[in-house]
Design a protein that fits this description.
By secondary structure, the protein is α/β, with parallel strands linked by helices. It has helices at about 75-80, 80-90, 95-100, 105-110, 120-130, 135-145, 160-170, 180-185, 190-200, 215-225, 235-240, 250-264; strands spanning about 5, 20, 40-45, 55-60, 150-155, 175-180, 205-210, 225-230. This is Flavin mononucleotide hydrolase 1, chloroplatic.
Length: about 260
């Protein structure tokens, strides 16, 4: 059974996905734990060829890992409010660009419905300068990497993803495997999710998908993936912990080991 988490999961909502929690207080509920008790979740390590560690983690990028400049910086660049920008822009041009169906030059020609010209390089520079890690997410990605998880980007984004990579070096933590501009599909298209599962060569239930948009999470769950809606890094740590994903750092683990020795 797939697990859908729209906010924070309670223990009763956990599916048969195996997990173990160390020293979790009985009072823990709704996905948070008291500050004075260390709670470290250790995932069940499912072995495949090459000792592949499960679950595989699939991260949306914009507004899940990276702050999306579209809602504030891009309207400011065009010197118009968001409502006016939405009314003026072509209804499908950006989607076509994300799917790799049109080139950068073609985007420039049809970005606005009336065909007006604009500073394309300026727009790119705006996007590049505005992108930054969402608070706490880089540390979480580093913890997941240190604990041996396979992490992939699963994103609706055009060839401009390279600008984000050049600035933030997401590839230090994950692979830019699943990009709409390469697959020609966008979330929440079920075919895109099926392509992902096929490419990974695992059962859908062995994947955890994280996205800030509930519609995309629901589409993942319908395919059989486990889904988490991103709110912030702290809540995501808790959600992953409850799924049995080890989000501890070496420092946290050392502290837990010391406390265990004292108790025992």
């Amino acid at each position: 059974m797939a697990l859908l988490v729209s906010w924070r999961p309670s223990a009763s909502n956990i599916s048969s996905f195996p997990f173990m929690v160390k020293t979790c207080p009985k009072t823990a509920k709704m996905g948070y734990f008291s500050n004075n008790i260390s709670c470290s979740a250790i995932s069940s390590v499912a072995t495949m060829a090459g000792q592949r560690k499960l679950p595989i983690l699939l991260f949306d990028v914009m507004d899940t890992i990276v702050r999306d400049p579209f809602y504030h910086d891009i309207p400011a660049f065009f010197r118009m409010p968001m409502k006016e920008l939405l009314e003026c822009k072509h209804p499908t041009a950006w989607i076509e660009f994300e799917k790799g169906l049109i080139s950068e030059d073609e985007l420039a020609m049809k970005f606005f419905k009336d065909g007006r010209s604009f500073d394309l390089e300026g727009l790119k520079n705006c996007l590049r300068s505005a992108c930054s890690y969402i608070e706490g997410v880089e540390g979480l990605l580093n913890s997941l990497k240190e604990n041996g998880y396979e992490i992939h980007a699963f994103t609706n984004f055009p060839i401009w993803y390279q600008m984000i990579e050049d600035k933030l070096k997401l590839s230090d933590y994950l692979s830019w495997t699943f990009r709409s501009c390469v697959f020609g599909k966008r979330k929440p298209d079920p075919e895109f999710y099926l392509e992902v599962v096929k490419h990974l060569n695992v059962e859908a239930s062995n994947c955890v998908f994280i996205d800030d948009r509930m519609r995309n999470v629901e589409a993942a769950v319908e395919i059989g993936l486990k889904g988490l809606q991103f709110k912030n890094a702290d809540l995501l740590r808790t959600d992953l912990c409850l799924l049995g994903v080890d989000v501890s750092t070496n420092e946290n683990q050392d502290l837990a080991d010391v406390r265990h020795k004292v108790i025992c």
